[in-house]
Amino acid sequence: MESTLEKIKEIISEPISKLDLVVDSIEYVKNGKYYFLNIVLDRINGIDLDTIVEATNIINPILDEYDLISDEYILDISSKERG
């Protein structure tokens, strides 16, 4: 699974860089009966909700096209928390 997550990072990094975003982390986890693909993004000065939506609209079709994970999962894209 680690190589799959690295491939996901590789294929989404360039498209989201147009929004000045970088991939902070990616994890694939099971929570209850559901699987989640958690992608955490970061940007200098933080990320607002509109940018998360924009990034989701970029990332989701890429993941559909490459179809690297055969299980059904919930895509969860969020921003890195700033302390």
Describe the model.
With 83 residues, the chain is α+β, with helices and mostly antiparallel strands. It has one domain: 2-Layer Sandwich (GMP Synthetase, Chain A, domain 3). It is built from two helices and three strands. A hairpin with a 2-residue loop joins strand 1 (22-31) and strand 2. It is globular. The relative contact order is 0.23. The mean pLDDT is 95.
Helix-strand layout with pairing:
Elements: H1 2-17, E1 22-31, E2 34-42, H2 49-66, E3 74-79
Parallel strand pairs: 2-3
Antiparallel strand pairs: 1-2
Helix pairs in contact: 1-2
**Computed CA radius of gyration, to the nearest angstrom:** 12 Å
- Write the CATH architecture name: 2-Layer Sandwich
For the secondary structure, the number of strands is 3
- Coarse structural class: alpha+beta
Q: How many domains, as an integer?
A: 1
Q: Characterize the overall form.
A: globular
Biggest sheet strand line-up: 1-2-3
| Number of helices, where a helix is a run of at least 4 consecutive DSSP H or I residues | 2
- Strand proportion: 25-35%
> What is the CATH fold-level name?
GMP Synthetase, Chain A, domain 3
Mean pLDDT: 95
CATH superfamily: RimP-like superfamily, N-terminal
Low-confidence stretches: none
**Cα separation of the termini:** 30 Å
Order of helices and strands: HEEHE
Helicity range of the residues? Answer: 40-55%
CATH class: Alpha Beta
Q: Report on the biggest sheet.
A: 3 strands, mixed
